[in-house]
Structures are given as C-alpha cells and as structure tokens.
Amino acid sequence: MRNSKYLAGLALLAVGGLALSGCSGGSGGDSGEGSVTLTFWHNSTTGAGKAYWEDTAAAFAEENPGVTVEIQSVPNEEMDGKLQTALNAGDAPDVFMARGGGKLADIVKAGQVMDLTDGISDGAKSALELSLPAFEVDGKNYGMPVAVLPSGIFYSSDLFAEAGVAATPATIDELVAADTQLRTAGIDPIAVGAKDAWPAAHWYYNFALRACSQEVLDDAAETRSFDDPCWLDAGENLQAFVDTDPFNKGFLTTVAQQGAGSSAGLLANHKAAMELMGAWNPGVIADLTPDKKPLADLQWFPFPAVPGGAGTPDAMMGGIDGYSCWVNAPEECVDFLNFMVEKGNQEAYAEAYQTIPASSEAQGAVTNPALLDILEAYNAAPYVSVWLDTLYGQNIGNALNVAVVDMFAGKGDAQGIVDAVNAAASRS
C-alpha cells in the first residue's frame, strides 16, 4: 500500500465529521468437539481498557456459543518483540494488534497474517470506509482498525497558568520560551519516556514531518533511502531543541506509561507540564491520576511550526490501531474483528480508552476536550503521516529509535541518525 492513500483517508476522516495489553500465544483451534478457542493479545494491562476487552470478549462468546476467547494482556513496550517472536515460531495468537505500514507489510510478505478482504462485513466496510485502507497491502485487507491516533502535545493548563504561560506555543521558539518560564517556576517543562525509546523518537518524527515534504516521507517507504538533506536537517533541529534542556529530570531512565513516575504519570500528577504523545494519552493519564479519573485540566496543541522546512506546517503525525488474524486462526477470528467495530462496541471503546474510535458511526462518544481539539486540528490538516517506525518497518524503525535515544543521551548526533537508518535499510 502507498502510505499516501492512508494519509488522504485520515484527512478526509476529519473533514467528514469524526465528531486509541494469560496464556501463551498460539493454537486457536478446537478445545473440544463443537467448540473453538481464540487466543487474543492486546496491550491494556490495567484499568478501563483491560476491562473493556474482557467485557467485549465475554459478549462475543455469549453471542457465539461454542467460542471461547482467551485473553493475554501484553505490556505495550513488549508487544512488538513478543509478537514477532511468536509469529516466527509459528505459535502466534489468533487475534493480535496491528498498526499498518511497513510492519504489517513485512508479516504479509512472510505469510503470517490472514487475508480478511472477503470476510469484512458490509457494516464494517461502511463505518470504516476511510480507515480500512490503513491495513491494505497490494489491494487486500489484513486488519480491522479500532482507533485513529493523531499526536501532539498534551499539557496541564493549571501548570501553564502557574508559570505565566499565556498562550500555547505555535512555533518551536515559542515552545522553548514556554519551557524557560516553566523551568523558572520550578516545573519540569516536558516529560519524555526515553527509556522506552519510541517516545523520544516521536520528537524526531515530528521534526522530520516539518523538515521533509510528504513526497519524501512516502518515497522513503518504497526506496528505503534516507539521503534527502531534510533527514539531517530534522536531526539538527532536534539537537538544537534538546540543547535547551526541555525535558524532565532523569528522562533517560523514565518509562512512558507505567506508573506515577512514567512520563504520562508525571503529567497526570502535575510533576511535568507537557508530553508529546498520541491520542490514546488521555486514557493512559486518567488511569494514573490520584483519583483514577480524567485529568481535569488536560489540554492539547499541535506540534509547533519549525522554520525552513519543506513539510506543510499543519501536517500531523499519527497512526491507526487495529487488530489482525494469524494466518492459521479459525474463521471465528474474522467474526470477532467484525464484532469489535460494531457501533456499540466502538462507542464503549472510545469511552474506555478516552480516545477516537475508527468507526464514523461511533463519533458521538468523543467528548474529551483535548480529543475534540485534536479533531479540530485534523479538520485543517492537509495530510497525516503514520509513525515513522511503523511506516518504514520494524528493523528500520528500531534503528531509528535507538539512534534518537543515543542523541538524547549525548552519544550520537544528527548524522548518526541518518547513518543508522540507512544501514538498517540496506539490510532490509
């Protein structure tokens, strides 16, 4: 699939009125005469998200006598590696997370994922018309989307007010100025879970989104060449930003989403003012506040403009979360995917995760102020790029993420990021 098709779909989704981890993987076969067991991996280990999947699996089993869904909650940071190991071993879960892009294309090429094209219900096709293309490879569908996940900077309006930050930053220079005000007020400006690599890498992704044109981003997915000068520019711009000391104390050992000391937890408990993250963040933060409720002062603004780049200023970085079926899964796996995206289940998903459902029919469930701000920005976005580690596949993505963390740690530079990615691409 050309990613540009997916990006256009996301932009149209916004304009069209869109009002985010037991048993071992494997077998999914019969558990007895006339019965079927589906093994299912997701990445919600606590809270409302975990409860949502337990309830949804139970409801599906009730509607489908003889079908049992065995759930394993896998921490998000472990999901990609654990899943790839299971796929390579031929013992994968029947139902597993998928994010499209090069990661999905790789497992399609390896023959590890089921072709869903003829099994998707008419209702699902209608409700997901603009998000289904995210899971197409060579004109066939290999996944069912459940959430659209644009990113940006989530922030505490109370901490902004305490530090005297009167307006949300529209440019990188304004973000640096806000960081200075927050630091002067004794507040860590930006939380980042660099220990998990990908949250730090998201900063490079967004600087690349501003430095590189849409055509360069898309073409690199096919050519696997990262020699355009914009990739180096992105790294140099990021290095200049890192040099302003914008992040929380101990960011190199901070995790992203587990516990009060994570980057999300720091924002949830007013220990830091901002975090760059995707649209699943309100739900994660809600689970980490002292009262386990949504953070009352949580707001959002888009990644700031960076002067001199070829990227369109209002372009956004994001993704779509969904689920796929292992190639050897029973046919009931497809029924379960169709069940996931029924209107009521998508509304419940949006409420449980505090995020944006993929189904256009469930858009009314989006009420969180920060998410509504994201949707407003979507309406103006000319295109949305998928996460670069997803777009370019796991091998290139891992090399990119590690190289960015090396820069954050003072062990690498902008050229090192480009060299690492090109070296990984040459081996892909």
Automatic annotation (TrEMBL):
<dbReference type="Pfam" id="PF01547">
    <property type="entry name" value="SBP_bac_1"/>
</dbReference>
<dbReference type="InterPro" id="IPR006059">
    <property type="entry name" value="SBP"/>
</dbReference>
<protein>
    <submittedName>
        <fullName>Extracellular solute-binding protein</fullName>
    </submittedName>
</protein>
<feature type="signal peptide">
    <location>
        <begin position="1"/>
        <end position="21"/>
    </location>
</feature>
<dbReference type="InterPro" id="IPR050490">
    <property type="entry name" value="Bact_solute-bd_prot1"/>
</dbReference>
<keyword id="KW-0732">Signal</keyword>
